[in-house]
Specification:
This protein has a single domain, classed as Sandwich (Jelly Rolls). Helix content is about 20%, strand content about 30%. It has six helices and 24 strands. The strands form six sheets. A six-stranded antiparallel sheet has the order 1-21-18-23-16-15. Strands 4-5-12-7-10-14 form a six-stranded antiparallel sheet. Strands 9-8-11-6-13 form a five-stranded antiparallel sheet, with no helix packed on it. The protein binds fe (ii) ion (2 copies). The site of one fe (ii) ion has 4 residues, from strand 6.
């Protein structure tokens, strides 16, 4: 609704606004509409991989001094859009490189893209990266990583750092000196948090440091497929659950893996929450919006972003092979605040 304001009224209003500015006040009528909508985006591996390698050549991992960087994280953020509560980016670790140990309030998930045998430490346990493995390093878990192989390793780093920054709750500490000791056998957490486990308190909202191997993941997907599990909007869809509580992967992030069967096309829906997908296998198209539709044509190792409250559906372009998508989203945060909404097409 527009109102016409006389010159005299405008003078009065300007005087009020001037006083508001001086006193740290703001009138409801001064708010300028809603924030512009977030837009979908795709990062194609064919474009990204060369520049990741160039960055590895140009920037050394070190203690952050003398031109080195503490981590070689390269964020994938949509140009002109903020991080959102969940960020995703690439971590590139070259043969022989070791990143110093630290911990922080942001929770980190790592999803292996290329390279096998690089490890990250988490609370005195080594966790191995391999393509398709997901590692969880929760709030305040000590972690560092080392590539002792002779090949570059690239994984996706997923952090709730946008949320932590928004809440101004950034705390971090460096490990005093040297490496974190490894006191636990490899595979300790996976063994420790099975259905049969030592008494474990359920009141910790953070997940334990944990890893989900690719062999178990693909076996679970295939078993779900064989068992007839099917989500009309996402195909065969599995959550990476907190192994203690059965809840989401971590307090503010849900990681999921999904399989689109050969030739499958899902139905359209829209919901609150942003989703970032990584193509583990296969080739397909995700359509965002209806008229006009935006088509994100993806293939192996591409990333794409679907913004909140936009109609979307996925299609596997192959009639012979399944397509597999890894994704992360902020649904747990929205659900805990009573703000998760979905409309089915
Ligand atoms: Fe970190
Ligand atoms: Fe969706």
């Amino acid at each position: 609704m527009s109102t016409s304001i006389s010159k005299l009224d405008q003078q009065k209003l300007d005087a009020v606004h001037k006083e508001f500015e001086r006193l740290g006040l703001r009138g409801y009528w001064q708010n300028r509409g809603e924030a512009p909508p977030l837009e979908p985006y795709i990062w194609r591996w064919a474009d990204i991989h060369p520049v990741l390698m160039q960055a590895a050549d140009a920037v050394a991992i070190g203690d952050g001094r003398e031109g080195t960087t503490f981590r070689r994280n390269i964020g994938a953020s949509v140009p002109g859009q903020g991080l959102g509560s969940v960020s995703m980016g690439y971590q590139v670790v070259m043969p022989g490189e070791k990143a110093p140990v630290h911990h922080h309030t942001a929770t980190a998930l790592r999803f292996g893209v290329i390279g096998r045998g690089t490890y990250t430490t988490a609370n005195e346990e080594r966790m191995m990266l391999e393509p398709g493995a997901l590692l969880v390093q929760p709030n305040w878990a000590w972690h560092g990583h080392a590539n002792l192989t002779d090949e570059p390793t690239i994984w996706l780093d997923i952090l709730n750092v946008g949320l932590v920054n928004f809440l101004r709750a950034q705390f971090r500490e460096e490990w005093a000196e040297g490496d974190q000791p490894i006191t636990k056998p490899d595979g300790f957490s996976v063994q420790r948090y099975q259905a049969l486990r030592p008494p474990t308190p359920l009141d910790n909202p953070d997940p334990p440091a944990f890893s989900y191997g690719w062999d178990e993941t693909i076996a679970a997907l295939e078993a779900a497929d064989d068992g007839g599990e099917d989500d009309p909007y996402d195909g065969v869809l599995l959550d990476y659950t907190n192994p203690v509580t059965g809840g989401p992967t971590c307090v503010s992030i849900l990681a999921q893996i999904q399989m689109l069967r050969p030739g499958e096309e899902t139905r359209a829906h829209r919901h609150t929450g942003s989703t970032r997908h990584h193509v583990v296998r296969g080739k397909g198209v995700t359509t965002v919006d209806k008229d006009p539709a935006i088509e994100l044509a993806w293939s192996e190792k591409d990333l794409f972003y679907v913004p909140p409250w936009r109609w979307h559906q996925h299609r596997n372009e192959s009639s012979t092979d399944p397509a597999i998508l890894f994704s992360v989203n902020d649904y747990p945060l929205l659900k805990s605040l009573g703000m998760y909404r979905e409309e089915l097409g």
